[in-house]
Write a structure and sequence with these properties.
Blueprint: H1 6-17, H2 40-47, H3 51-58, H4 67-76, H5 81-97, H6 115-123, E1 129-132, E2 138-141, H7 143-147, H8 162-168, H9 172-175, H10 179-196, H11 201-213, H12 215-221, E3 232-238, E4 242-252, E5 260-265, H13 271-287, H14 299-309
Helix pairs in contact: 1-5, 2-3, 2-4, 4-5, 8-10, 11-12
Length: 315
């Protein structure tokens, strides 16, 4: 019998394999364990459920675990808040698939960037800034935001995606000192999106493309790490302005179905700030003479919307 709701079982298996029995005070027993992490019977015991019930749950034959069981599994697996929310959503999806009530609809993702946001991107210069869609399509950017990832400007508008760049652009691996950590963060963000929007067409497209083109992505995708990208610091080994460490803020944009504004900054008077200012100057010079929408990847979508409504201005 095939699994009816495989994602819940896959997540449990992946996270079970990632928990060290020693960390939970469990005896390792004689000999070598055949599989890494917790055994099924160990996790079932820690969660207070029968081994038969847990096996049915992991195989997708049990589709309606109670909230108490889901939370008990989360505690046994030592899930953080985001990972537990992801597990709850997978359980809810399995229940809906077995005939429970449908989930409330989420707003459709929008590729349109409001004029006020474009003005804001210019206002924060020389700080690099850009607008990302739900699955990290770069929808708009100021000059230094676009040139923060070298070579992104050479890609067509519809290809500009920070996760695609991380895994597929030849310059990406030399841009971040710890490329592996940066890549895992990207994948964990997509997993978080999958927890709330599993049927999202853009999500399916980017995951499908990267799974085919990048063995590293496929390996990380199967880990089922879950984390929304938040605020912090990143160090760039930038080929134009040298090494710089920038703080970044990530802000949700209302009424966009998951859009985010990302702004980088550095303390004034520091070498990092000087490098950031130089990047903005170099980026603006490189873009001089190019079309005005070179930094606005939502331009094509907006033109299409105007043409469809009959409001495209004559030329």
């Amino acid at each position: 019998m095939t699994e009816q709701h495989p994602e819940l079982g896959r997540f449990l298996r992946a996270r079970r394999a990632g928990v060290s029995p020693a960390d939970l005070g469990l005896p390792l027993g004689a000999g070598t364990r055949r599989t890494p992490g917790l055994r099924r019977e160990e996790l079932a015991a820690l969660a207070g459920v029968s081994i038969d019930y847990y096996i049915r749950l992991e195989r997708g034959k049990e589709t309606r675990p109670s909230p108490a069981v889901v939370d008990a599994l989360g505690r046994a697996l030592r899930l953080n808040a985001e990972e537990l929310a992801f597990l709850r959503e997978l359980a809810a999806q399995a229940a809906r698939g077995s005939g429970a009530s449908a989930a409330p609809s989420r707003p459709a993702a929008s590729r349109t960037v409001r004029p006020t946001l474009r003005r804001l991107l210019e206002t924060v210069r020389p700080c690099p800034a850009y607008v990302l869609g739900r699955t990290n399509d770069m929808l708009a950017a100021n000059p230094s935001g676009l040139f923060l990832t070298p070579g992104m400007v050479d890609w067509p508008d519809r290809k500009r995606n920070t996760i695609r760049y991380t895994f597929l652009h030849p310059r990406a691996r030399s841009l971040w000192p710890d490329w592996e950590a940066k890549a895992r963060s990207c994948v964990a963000h997509l997993r978080a999106v999958a927890g709330t929007d599993p049927d999202d067409a853009e999500l399916a497209a980017i995951v499908g493309e990267l799974a085919v083109k990048s063995p590293e992505f496929s390996r990380m995708w199967e880990r089922y790490d879950v984390r929304r990208v938040g605020n912090g610091q990143k160090t760039f080994l930038h080929p134009t302005v040298g090494t710089m460490t920038l703080s970044h803020e990530v802000m949700e944009i209302n009424h966009t179905g998951g859009g985010r504004l990302v702004v980088y900054s550095a303390e004034p008077g520091t070498p990092d700030h000087d490098a950031m200012v130089l990047l903005d100057m170099e980026a603006a010079a490189a873009l001089a003479g190019q079309p005005n929408d070179s930094c606005d990847t939502s331009a094509d979508a907006e033109r299409a919307e105007r043409a469809e409504s009959g409001s495209e201005p004559e030329r």
